[in-house]
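Morning F.,

Quick status update on the modeling queue. The single chain you submitted on Monday has been processed. Sequence for confirmation:
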Amino acid sequence: MSATTTPPVEPVLLKVEAAMHALSMSRSVIYELIRAGRLRSVNEGRARFITRSAINEYIALLEREAGVSK
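Structure tokens below.
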């Protein structure tokens, strides 16, 4: 019998620090993007998270603003 390993699961909700690394941006820039409505976030209790889909949407927004077509 062979042991099967499950592939690692990427988190769907990222803490601000993880989003900072994913986007190569500082904490203050991340919070400014959230305040400006350019990067969506969700709260769970006192914790703030940024969804993977919000990061992808922000990247798509940057591409649209830069005139990059897919």
